[in-house]
Design brief:
By secondary structure, the protein is of the alpha/beta class. The chain has helices at about 15-25, 55-65, 80-85, 85-110, 140-160, 190-200, 225-240, 260-270, 295-300, 310-320, and strands spanning about 5-10, 30-35, 45-50, 70-75, 110-120, 125-130, 160-170, 170, 205-210, 220, 225, 245-250, 255-260, 275-280, 290. Bound molecules: nicotinamide-adenine-dinucleotide.
Length: about 325
């Protein structure tokens, strides 16, 4: 059944791709975003309503007036290292605002929610971690995601909601059609930073930590193409029938790459050298994280289409070239 879906954070990197995936399946996305880190230019699918998730009254009126069937909640602050310096902002933006959203949904009678969680809830999770693993968040950001999941599992029972938490591993790449991209400013994510250093937009790539217990001493992450992540949201809306519980799924490619392996892959793909500076560890960074996504494959029928590092690097490179100035938002 076609759904009208409110996408909080739909003007951001992952949210814009989610809106495209929804539209391609015939659903109607409505973007709700305060454009704090998002871009008006990334809203290509669905209408943009400018607003803040912290504004419960506005949200509630909008959910009713727009006759929203379901909410995909991506809006929030996103960076573990940043959260070590600003925990209050992270708990306000991620935990408090999620509670405000749930309250508005309950009041407006909207009972379907897909939440953007993160592999950071696991902390250090070296080999193909599954959803049953013990949670060991290492930063206020990661704890904020864990707290929202705990909150949602209680609220889902009491409100009889269909609630889904998608634990993304590292989102990367960009829309293969070249319409959407990753346009963070400043850019914190590794693959675009390596590309920027290779092409001279960044003076050098700082590698944070070379003494981790990994094969080459640098951090290992499981990179998942943003288009594959986006499709998983649509599958979650269409296929999860369970009510009165929070269903949790990992989304990753089940293979980790170290920072040095990413640098090497970018150098090979572009035929350029990445200027590198080795530095100490950053607080809040686990050594190694990779996913088991078996549950998403089995229960959602999720099957990543852009799993190769080459696809991820090529699409990310193209999106970097199309990146607008911040003034465009
Ligand atoms: N990028 C990743 O690798 C990754 C990994 C795991 C989880 N996540 C989660 O996915 C979500 C989206 O991440 P992203 O990389 O697309 O980030 P992003 O910064 O590109 O997008 C976030 C969007 O939310 C909007 N926003 C922020 N606070 C808001 C508020 N109070 N009200 C309304 N809009 C608000 C921003 O303007 C932006 O458009 C986040 O919840 C993040 O924690 C991201």
């Amino acid at each position: 059944m076609v759904k009208k879906v409110l996408v909080t954070g739909g003007a951001g990197f992952i949210g814009s791709h989610v809106c495209k995936a929804l539209a391609k399946r015939g659903h109607e996305p409505v973007v709700y975003d305060n454009l704090s880190t998002g871009h008006r230019d990334l809203v290509r699918y669905g209408r943009l309503i400018e607003g803040d998730v912290g504004d419960g009254e506005r949200l509630q009126a909008m959910l009713r007036n727009e006759r929203i069937d379901a909410v995909i909640h991506l809006a929030g602050l996103c960076y573990p290292a940043d959260s070590m310096r600003a925990p209050l902002a992270y708990y306000q933006q991620n935990v408090r605002n999620s509670l405000v959203l749930c309250d508005a949904m309950a009041a407006a009678g909207v009972g379907t929610l897909v939440f953007s969680s993160s592999c950071s809830v696991y902390g250090h999770a070296s080999e193909a971690v599954d959803e049953q693993a013990t949670l060991s968040p290492m930063s206020p950001y990661a704890r904020s995601k864990m707290l929202v999941e705990q909150m949602l599992s209680d609220i889902a029972v009491e409100q009889d909601w269909t609630a889904v938490s998608l634990r993304y591993f590292n989102a990367a790449g960009a829309d293969p059609d070249g319409e959407l991209g990753e346009w963070h400013e400043p850019e914190p994510h590794l693959i675009p930073r390596v590309l920027m250093a290779a092409t001279g937009t960044l003076a050098e790539l700082v590698v944070h930590g070379t003494d981790y217990p990994t094969a080459d001493g640098t951090c290992v992450r499981d990179y998942c193409h943003v288009t594959d992540l986006a499709v998983a949201h649509v599958l979650a809306l269409e296929r999860v029938q369970t009510r009165g519980a929070l269903s949790i799924f990992n989304l990753g490619n089940e293979r980790g790459f170290s920072v040095l392996e990413i640098i090497q892959a970018v150098e090979t793909e572009l035929g350029l050298t990445v200027p590198v500076r080795l530095a100490g560890r950053r607080p809040g960074d686990p050594a190694s994280v990779s996913a088991s996504s078996r549950k998403a494959r089995d229960e959602l029928g999720w099957s990543p289409q852009y799993a190769s590092l080459t696809d991820i690097i090529r699409t990310a490179h193209r999106s970097l070239a199309a990146r607008p100035n911040r003034t465009s938002s």
